[in-house]
Amino acid sequence: MQNSRQYYDNSHDLITQKELAKAGELLWGAIAEATKALHLIVKNKPVDIHTDITKYLGQLAVQYGDTGKIKMEHVSAARQLHTNFYESDLVQQGESTFFEQYEYGRILFGFLMDLIERYPGITQ
User: Is the separation of the CB atoms in 78 and 31 below 8 Å?
Assistant: First the structure.
């Protein structure tokens, strides 16, 4: 959990430095680490492959979608933050689109951390 929080904090630092692609990648890293931790807690087995992480996030979106706390748009936006770092030109995409994706990623991260904190015996 420490890595996840550190990645999250570092992503904010990079936003202030206008390093948007790096900030998005670190936010994706925070989300991925939190997802791995939650999967291990809930299912008692690790998940490491990006496609499996995204699949589990999708399952969570379906499971909790009616609460309004997480939607598939959050998952898609977070995944795009990762893709932006490797394959996309943020100038073409536009900063407003990036910041929308980033905000969805922040919501997703907060949701994951809330779920993790519900489990007794978890140290942050």
Answer: yes
